[in-house]
Amino acid sequence: MSLITEIEAMRLAAINDFNNAADVSSLEKSKSVWLGANGKITSLMKQLGSLPKEERPSAGKAINAIKNALESVLAEKRAELELKLSLPKNPTDFTLPGRRRRLGKLHPLIRTTDDIVRSFRKIGFAVAEGPEVEDDYHCFDALNTPPDHPARDTQDTFYIAADNTNTSKIATVGNASNPLLLRTHTSPVQVRVMEKQKPPIRIIVPGRVYRRDNADATHNPTFHQVEGLYVDKNVTVGDLKGTVEFVFQELMGPETKIRFRPHYFSYTEPSFEIDFSSPLTRKMGKEWLEIAGCGMVHPQVFENVGYNPEEWTGWAFGFGIERIAMIRYGINDIRLFYENDIRFLRQF
Ligand code: DAH
Fold first, then answer.
1. Distance 285 CA to ligand 1 centre (A)
2. pTM score, whole prediction
3. How far is Cα 119 from Cα 130, in angstroms, rounded to an integer?
4. Which CATH entry fits the domain spanning 108-130+184-345: 3.30.930.10, 3.30.200.20, 3.10.180.10, 2.160.10.10?
5. Closest alpha carbon to 258 in 278, 238, 239
6. With CB atoms 3.0 to 4.6 Å apart as the test, which of 167, 196, 211, 275 could cross-link to 288 if both were Cys?
7. Which atom of ligand 1 lies nearest, measured to the CA of 154?
8. How many A from CA of 297 to the centre of ligand 1?
9. 55-104, pLDDT tens digit by residue?
């Protein structure tokens, strides 16, 4: 066999060998069998010397060409095997549906607040806001609750020391006779709104309030209320009752009944507590549940904001949002609202 035919046979055998390599390490082994220092192609090179002088250049060229060709086959095969190695063992099925992110939900307190606001909007009430860091005057005095009034005992709160803040506005606003505090109810917003605008007024005030209460199943130092205020000419208790009934039937179902019991609040006269009854209260083992406070705006409150009590009449109410949400959803511990336990929140 001539050297040329031998070379061609070797080329085919080497390519075959390379292509059969299952992984990079067996490819490297094949490489050394053919192209290594003692490889078959290398030894052909060494035989060149035994050829007649005139045949040597063409044979040498042929061997070199084959060496180069094999190198490039080798490089290609190596790239192919390395790529294979980096791919996942089980091929991806691109037709599978993607992973969906869970949709977030509104917190049950936000949902309840939104529902309350939506009901009041239907009958022409606008949402008003006021500061959570309030002053003593708006929280109590303007609502006809002077410092020695016993009603203050039920609404102990957190006071903001006026002397330990040197940069914030707070220090310049609060003073010894009118200290700053965290509001205990949303009622001061009644005063703030009336100070700024003339009647008629038809507002609700959803918001956060604070009290120095220890947390238990029905109390938390931070909670939420909705305040309502309606001021116009010739407003009656009948208007109040009709409004409250409409909203509670929206919130708690069409079978809801409400009743007023006489009560005392210093900023309303007469004052009432509102009870309601519905399938929800019966589920909790009671016919009537106390749900809100309300009454006709006290003439002194009108005086305090510069309204003429002979000219204007009005009613106000306030209730806790947590309590409404707890009854609606059958929640038995108020603290669940604030723990951010995803297992609790997912249920709504
Ligand atoms: N501010 C009262 C409280 O926090 C609730 C309340 C009672 C609000 C009677 C009113 C009202 O506007 O007229 O317990």
1. 26
2. 0.72
3. 21
4. 3.30.930.10
5. 278
6. 275
7. 14
8. 11
9. 888 888 888 888 888 889 899 999 988 888 888 888 888 898 988 888 88
